[in-house]
Amino acid sequence: MPEIRETRVIAPNFKQRLSGVTSTIIQLVPIQRRLGVKIAAVGPGLPDSVAKLKLWQLLGLAWPFSGRSLRVWHARRNVELVGGLLLKYLLFAPLKLVFTSASQRHHQRFTKWLIRRADAVVATSRRTAAYLEVENQVIMHGIDTARFSPARDVADQKRAMGFRGDAKLIGCFGRIRHQKGTDLFVDAMIRLLPQYPEWTAIIAGRTTVEHGTFEKEQREKIAAASLTDRIVFVGEHRDIERWYQILSLYVAPQRWEGFGLTPLEAMACGMPVVATDVGAFSELVVHDCTGVIVERDDIESLTQGIQPYLADAKRLETHGVNALNHVRENFPLEREAQQLLQLYDRLLCDGPEAKRCA
Fold first, then answer.
1. CA nearest 295: which of 261, 253, 265, 250?
2. Is beta strand 168-173 parallel, antiparallel or unpaired with respect to 273-276?
3. What one-character DSSP code corresponds to residue 23?
4. CA neighbours within 13 Å on the CB side: how many for 216?
5. Cβ of 26: how many Cβ atoms within 10 Å?
6. pLDDT by 10-residue block (mean), the chain, 358 residues
7. The CATH homologous superfamily of the domain defined by 154-330
């Protein structure tokens, strides 16, 4: 367990359930520590692979226990920024507050008030930056390109996971709900799969209780189309990279998204992506090169975006190679970690010299 007196950057995670923010912290913190950042996370839902503080250790940030050692508190949710403000102004902790925003909507008055009190603001995309009314720096998310990479033997992996070695698989991963566009994917598959009998669709992800009826409706549509054996639900998986690796094409049909990592994860495994124009998708997918961007919440646009890939093996292969190279060159997780390290250094260093302080 890290000592609070040795920690210079704190990444709070105040949400028990796994989310995109939690996943970001889990992936980034170990890499940032390897780069020499004295960083630790704090909060529930974090695995042992992440260096983390106990909540009670945060009392060590209070004056006079902290001395006057300056630290960075990097919040990614409103509640975590509130926590940093309480530490700074009630316990007089010497903190520099960083806030990362992925939201693509006009902020409510309270959120604007919070953001204005951060010492530095990070936007995860240019589209997000456009909604911020304060100075900010765009640092886009990256992914672990060692974890998300093409399978060594795709046919063997398909067979190991219950499919034919020569099966052509199209996937849609994420929580099963209206916001994620699962129904749009199902509707597109019902239209297209009868024309392409060699293809099978995979839906992976968790369905929470409140969205159980929504999943039931999708299954009923699939059964009515006699496609139960060709549009399959495989549930939630921690080793999701193995499911990406057996796909030939990935679809991201979301109606709304903050950033959205799934297109990057899919492209890193060597396949093109058909994605709606939400979140950062248009900044991740190079249209008609690594995939295509289609209209949001538009079944016609989505179907037309998918169909050419099912019909044209050459297009599928060429765009898959382009996608792999694009992600490896532009979105490795190490790049995000390095850019954040430079931000932390600026906040923690005194004077103009480029001395390493984190």
1. 253
2. unpaired
3. H
4. 6
5. 18
6. 89 84 90 94 91 93 74 96 96 95 90 96 95 95 94 96 96 96 98 98 95 96 98 93 97 93 96 96 97 98 98 98 98 96 90 42
7. Glycogen Phosphorylase B; (3.40.50.2000)
CA angle 120/330/158 to nearest 5° reads 120
Amino acid at 312: D
The domain limits of the chain are 4-142+333-348, 154-330
- Residues forming a β-bridge with 300: none
User: What CATH code is assigned to 4-142+333-348?
Assistant: 3.40.50.2000
191 burial class (0-12, 13-18, 19+ CB within 10 angstroms)? Answer: middle
Count of beta carbons in the 10 Å neighbourhood of residue 308? 14
Asked whether the beta carbons of 47 and 26 are under 8 A apart, the reply is yes
* Residue in 79, 71, 67 with CA at minimum distance from that of residue 43: 79
pLDDT score recorded for residue 351:
38
CA distance 350 to 133: 27
Cite the DSSP H helix spans in 181-312: 182-192, 212-224, 240-244, 262-268, 281-284, 299-311
Tokens 């359930």 sit at which residue? 17
DSSP states of 218-243: HHHHHHHTT-TTTEEEEE--TTHHHH
Residue type, 334: E
CATH topology agreement for domains 4-142+333-348 and 154-330: yes
As given in the structure block, the two tokens for residue 232 are 């399959």
User: What are the structure tokens assigned to 142, written together?
Assistant: 């990256």
